[in-house]
């Protein structure tokens, strides 16, 4: 895997449980990868308290850095980590500088949560990482993984070999192997409107002449995909329905710990992703979500 290790972004609350670090630490230990921990300790409350006094500001920032240093040591135990404790009012620049310096294979961030539904509430920091950071981005909830974590890879198996779906299943398989977990591939078939089938008539390819033909075509593509990646057929599931709702519901029912999805490059201006379906999926999912970049993705942060 390309990259220089795992980069974890901490929540700014010093007393927070830091689930991103808990899970990032597990992944780093399992894979034998270096771990970097970053937190922006800048505080509007601290700035108001010290006012314009530069000496007081520097003293306060020093105390805050010491507190964070101690907190990270307590959370990491005897695991060696590279600490990046910065204080910057420009949070986006601090994020970009850290990513550019570390060039991680995986960035881990804790998303906020919405009550019992545990849906991801993405912050500007999360979207910046998804759209710009090199390597994959893992967005986590506070719930712990199962002892045998379940990795669900969302794929479009009819795409060409060597494409994004191979990267998605490859990333899911890699982390699943490191964590001694369970791997599965899922494809959601969203049928076209029946009226469209009637109107299009002979303009549609032969396999799309009926819902049954469409289902059979996608099932065969999924079976071939599973065989190519040495995945048992019973670990490759074809679902039907609206993509975001169906896949999110399936992960909830099956107890998936991590949903692995791919991003799609749009054009040079948009740089990357995501589209209404993918964004809806990210915010609907009740489990952790890993976002994998295309093979030709070039981060403008680098």
Explain the layout of strands and helices.
Blueprint: E1 6-9, H1 19-31, E2 35-40, H2 44-50, H3 54-76, E3 82-86, H4 91-102, E4 106-110, E5 112-114, E6 119-121, H5 124-132, E7 136-140, E8 150-154, H6 164-178, E9 182-189, H7 194-200, H8 211-228, E10 236-240, H9 243-254, E11 258-262, H10 275-284, E12 288-292
Parallel strand pairs: 1-2, 1-4, 2-3, 4-7, 8-9, 8-11, 9-10, 11-12
Antiparallel strand pairs: 5-6, 7-12
Helix pairs in contact: 9-10
Question: What would you say this structure looks like, in words?
Answer:
The chain has about 300 residues and is an alpha/beta fold. The chain folds into 2 domains: about 1-110, Rossmann fold (3-Layer(aba) Sandwich); about 145-300, HUPs (Rossmann fold), CATH 3.40.50.620. About 40% of the residues lie in helices and about 20% in strands. It contains 10 helices and 12 strands. It has helices at about 20-30, 45-50, 55-75, 90-100, 125-130, 165-180, 195-200, 210-230, 245-255, 275-285; strands at about 5-10, 35-40, 80-85, 105-110, 110-115, 120, 135-140, 150-155, 180-190, 235-240, 260, 290. The strands form 2 sheets. Strands 3-2-1-4-7-12-11-8-9-10 form a 10-stranded mixed sheet, sandwiched between helices. A two-stranded antiparallel ribbon has the order 5-6. Strand 8, helix 6 (about 165-180) and strand 9 form a beta-alpha-beta unit. Helix 9 (about 245-255) runs parallel beside helix 10 (about 275-285). The radius of gyration is 22 Å and the shape is elongated. The model is unreliable at about 265-275 (pLDDT under 50). InterPro entries: Universal_stress_UspA, UspA. It comes from Alloalcanivorax venustensis ISO4.
